[in-house]
Amino acid sequence: MKKKYLLLLLSLCLAGILPAQITPTADRILYVNKAVSGGNGNGSSWANAIPELADALKWTRAQYDANNNWLAGDSLRIYIAEGTYKPLYDADNGRYQNDGGRDNAFVIMNRVHLYGGFPSTGNPGMGQRNWKTYSTTLSGDIGAPNDAADNVYHVLISMGGGNVHLDGLKITGGNANATHQTPLVRIPGNDITYIRNTGAGSLLSGNHSLRLSNMEISGNTAAYAGGGYIFGTPVFTNTEVRNNTAVERGGGLYFTSPYEDPVVAGSLFTGNTSKLGGAIYSRDDSLVVINTTFADNTATTAGNAICSEAAYISGQSVRNPVLVNSILWNSTPNAVSMIENTGDLPFIITYSIVQGNSVAAGTGNSNANPLFTNAGSGNYTLMAASPAINTGNTPLWNAANITGTMVDLAGNPRVAGNAIDRGAFELQTVLPVSFGSFRATLKNGQLLFNWNTETEINSDHFLVQVSADGANWETVQTVQSKATTGNSHTVLEYAITIPLTMLGLSAGFLLLGTMAYKRRRREPAVAAFLVCILSFACHKTGIVKSAETGALFARLVQVDKDGAQRVSKTIQVVRE
User: In what helix (H) or strand (E) does residue 528 lie, and over which residues does it extend?
Assistant: First the structure.
């Protein structure tokens, strides 16, 4: 009788009436494909892929319940083909075998890594992945289509783990709008209370090695905070956070773990809205944001891009949050600042473009328009004339040593040219001039400009420009290219000296330089008269005053023979 029963079970499994026992490969990989046809569904190959991600994750949770050390010293990778997957089971530890309605969620256990972006046909490997071409979507829209009222509170939850990697996924459709705390949602090691109003797209907590890369978090809504709620030390790389809304804090992400070290690198935040921190609200004292673009996010009270409440607490080791090589810009400015500090540990900002009435304090910053390719259509790559090109700090990027950031957000080489670009995207076009060193010094009442070029192609001349605020520029000298016929592939050295008393004469210098360059004949008396008039009119301009008492910035504009212009990095004049 027992033998007949076993044979019956086997025949039912083979017929597909009962699911096969899930069986990872020898190197601990499970395959998931919504579009799989045939196979036994045990997840051991693409041919035998599990149709639903929810079933694969339910199985991992059952293993965890049976032996919470089942992946000690190892990890499980789940490869997920393109398609839309929805959470089918209750997030609670005691109810996850059931459909829990709005409490459904994809629950990720410790040492379980998800990789999306595989094509749904063939036998693709990691080299065939493309997270934008083969979109793997985790959607919280489990009810009526296009009706958020019955969407899940959280699309994805990872609580209490120490090693989780999410890569190549789109998380969308979470609606954390509940006010009730019960029934509790229990995840191994944690009870989630009062949290159904926070972290609609993802609720991530307690992870000391949480990595998210090649991700999109979009179209999530929270009644309190965050399209994504983060408690721990995550690293976000090459991630898009788009069109999320939180009523109170952090429309895109809400970091709420003081004394941790979250990192956001090579990412894009756009279209996110909240009262405080349109894109990010952070309580983390040591948040690091590097080579990230914040564009067209909105806060109604403070911090269109970021609102930080990082604060010093006696007896605790704390560090200021840091912003490096980034762009913070809105196509339609409003009265709210881009960065707001509500605590007593302000951001340290370097080599960044931050929109505002004045340049952000710090090295290499500006508030010049970054010249996005087409912000109106959501294209935040850089135009060829952008002041963000080659003006980031490459050593700072390299020092960050962030895993998986050899490419920019578009999948192109991260550094193209002689320096890294600011923001999430790297312009790949080879520029007609490759600038080498560039130095500007104020010494004994004179400005000394020294620079060299490593290559020049079709180069005509340079405009030497100075600025008191890093945004409004005046040309103070025109210098002809030393390249024969405008082309050179060897290092060319340039040096000019301008008396400080002549700084107000930018328009006159440009005019006279142009006249001399084009060899147009003019009477010496007329030129001298023009200089005298300009000297009188421009005496003690803002540029002169800034040079004498404050900061002064310099840059080079290279002009091609066809009139096209390219701008060098912006540097601060050094006093000697």
Answer: helix 524-538
Distance, in Å, from the CA atom of 277 to the CA atom of 254, rounded to the nearest integer, reads 9
Q: Tell me: the pLDDT tens digits for 380-413?
A: 999 888 999 989 999 999 888 776 667 899 988 8
- pTM value? 0.76
CB atoms within 10 A of CB 458: 15
User: Does residue 4 have a pLDDT over 70?
Assistant: no
- Averaged pLDDT, 129-136: 95
Per-residue CA distances from 248 to 91, 123, 194, 245, 251 (Å): 25, 46, 15, 9, 8
The answer to whether 137 and 99 have CB atoms below 8 angstroms apart is no
pLDDT band at 539 (very low <50, low <70, confident <90, very high): very low
Contacts 24+ apart (CB under 8 A), 370-375: 370/327, 370/329, 370/422, 370/423, 372/295, 372/329, 372/331, 375/295, 375/296, 375/331
Domains recognised in the chain with CATH numbers: 17-224 (no CATH), 259-270+279-429 (no CATH), 433-575 (2.60.40.10)
Asked if residue 27 lies in contact with residue 113, where contact means CB atoms within 8 angstroms, the answer is: no
Signed CA dihedral, 499, 500, 505, 510: sign only: positive
At position 463, the amino acid (one-letter code) is: L
Instruction: Give residue 266's region: left, alpha or beta (phi > 0; psi -120 to 50).
Output: left
- DSSP H helical ranges for 249-339: none
